[in-house]
Amino acid sequence: MKRNLIIGGIIVAVLLVGFFVLPSILSGGQQDTGSTLQTEPLAVGELTAYVGATGTVRSSQNAVLNWQTGGTVASVLVDKGDVVTSGTVLAELEQTSLSQSIILAQSDLISAKQNLEDVLNSGEARANAQLALVQAQQDLEDAEEDSQSKQYQRAGQNTIDISRADLILAEDALDDAEVIYDRNADRSQDDPIYAAALSQLANARKTRDKAYYNYQYVAGLPDPLDISEVEAELALAQEKLLAAEREWNRLKDGPDPDDIETAQNRVTAAQATLNLAHLTAPFNGTLTEISVDPGDVVNAGTRAFRLDDLSRLLVDVDVSEVDINGVQIGQPATLTFDAIPGKEYAGVVDDVAAVGNTVSGAVNFTVTIQIMDADEAVRPGMTAAVNIAVQQLENALLVPNRSVRTLDGQRVIYILKNNQSVTVPITLGATSNTYSEILEGDVQAGDLVVLNPSTVLQIQPGSGNRGPF
After folding, report:
1. pLDDT tens per residue across span 358-383
2. 450: number of CA atoms within 13 Å, CB side?
3. Mapping DSSP to helix (H, G, I), strand (E, B) and coil, where does residue 362 land?
4. Which residue ranges of the chain lie beneath pLDDT 70?
5. CATH topology (fold) of 20-51+393-456
6. What are the phi and psi torsion angles at 147 (to 5°)?
């Protein structure tokens, strides 16, 4: 990157300021060579060092807006140059030209919004969850009782003996009742004796059956199939209770966040589909390009608008790795444009890249400058010459750059002493376009430095002085 250093606020406090035009033969007897010797006294003053570069103006934010679906443009609601806010509708497609999915998205959106409202506001789900929990608890208690009743062990022997004795007696009573009935079976059915015999037989059978089943009940274990069924019903009741408890815990403190998110996502999806029918501004800015007109038939990807935030203009420049450590965020800068002659703009360093880019073996770092006083004349795409003030020196011994020469690889200046030019080696520090700081050298403020040594330092042979080249 080209390095360009320009002086800023040069020589505010000067110990000795002057510009002298002297004849080449001064009082003291040096022979006139017919040329004019220009000198200037070295002075102490302020020096601002700049790092210069060129870059292109851009808006701080910009976007190219393309259609995301096909259709016929129904209306364009803005004009080029309009300043719009985020969310402003810029253009719309005709409803009848849209795909079926977009048309139906309106109904989907209404349904999704209603579902979201139900999730947020309805207490019915909470009440149903509480009722389901109570019912599940009761079902589990019933299943546990049924399971317990099937898990009894064989009854005590005394109970079994009593049940068996009752069965024997019932069977004997049934035998006696059958004998009596057989004895009177030929009687008329309306005969009271026949009726009494029949009633005695029926009661004896009923008593015998009850005694039999009771004996079987206390003497045996439950059927294995019955036990399996009861155990399955118990396990199912337990699982239903766990599910009811989870649902109650999810709803007891209000709508479940997952349900809200799901409902909201359905609203967002339907709205996103519906939004394909128009284009909106994604941020506040100025419409710098409009590429569509009403009646245009567009497809997904067709370019429609360009939006730029012109309230904040930036310039990106590349700074060499040699200079980058002197550049800091917040440093002032000046900007000039070939397209805007005679005017200088103020800027400030907004960002300094942390990583450099290597191009053709040179490492450069991108530095972003914000233009602080941009007007309508400054437009994105313009080329700007940028000078960043990287160093401000006070009380520096300054030498004009035009007087500095290189002699045998050493920077030198020519000082006029006793009407003779004397070569003085120097070491330079910060520098600008016109002046540089002298760090080392046998010079002091007030010494007259020759500004045009290449034309006046043709000294007579034997003088001991040499030209710069």
Report:
1. 989 999 999 999 999 999 999 999 99
2. 27
3. strand
4. 1-35, 118-124, 126, 149-156, 220-224, 226, 251, 253-256, 455-469
5. 2.40.420
6. -65, -40
Contact criterion met (CB below 8 Å) for 73 and 293: yes
Using CA atoms, how far residue 450 sits from 31, 412, 421, 426, in Å, is 17, 11, 8, 14
Amino acid at 114: Q
Q: What pLDDT is recorded for position 392? A: 83
Q: Which residues pair with 412 in a beta bridge?
A: 405, 425
Q: Which value, to the nearest 10 degrees, does the dihedral of the CA atoms of residues 137, 143, 145, 147 take?
A: -150
pLDDT at residue number 107: 80
Closest to 387 measured CA to CA, from 357, 338, 432 = 432
Phi, psi angle pair for 100, to nearest 5°: -60, -35
Residues in contact with 294: Cβ distance below 8 Å, sequence separation at least 6, in sequence order: 73, 74, 75, 76
Residues 242, 91: contact at Cβ < 8 Å?
Answer: no
Fold (topology level) of 54-60+308-389: Elongation Factor Tu (Ef-tu); domain 3 (2.40.30)
CA distance 412 to 391: 24
Distance CA 141, CA 306 (A): 70
Q: Among 399, 388, 389, which Cα is nearest to 439's? A: 399
The neighbouring-strand residues paired with 367 are 317, 352
Give the pLDDT of residue 32.
35
Specify the CATH class of 67-93+279-307 in words.
mainly beta
Would you kindly state where each structural domain of the chain is located, as residue ranges?
20-51+393-456, 54-60+308-389, 67-93+279-307
Collapse the DSSP code of 80 into the 3-class scheme (helix H, G, I; strand E, B; otherwise coil) and give the result.
coil
The predicted pLDDT at position 62 comes to 94
Q: What is the rounded (10 degree) CA torsion for 434, 439, 444, 447? A: -30
67-93+279-307 matches 20-51+393-456 in CATH topology: no
Q: Using the Cα atoms of residue 51, residue 56, residue 59 and residue 63 in order, give the sign of their dihedral.
A: negative
Residue with tokens 């520090």: 429
Query: In the prediction, which pLDDT does 432 show?
Result: 79
Q: Which residues of 364-385 are buried (b: 16+ CB within 10 A; e: fewer)?
A: bbbbbbbbeebeeebbeebebb
Taking the C-alpha atoms of residue 237 and residue 239, their distance in angstroms, rounded to an integer, is 6
Helix, strand, or coil (residue 200) = helix
Phi-psi region of 184 (alpha: psi -120 to 50; beta: other; left: phi over 0): alpha
- Name the 3-class secondary structure at 440: strand
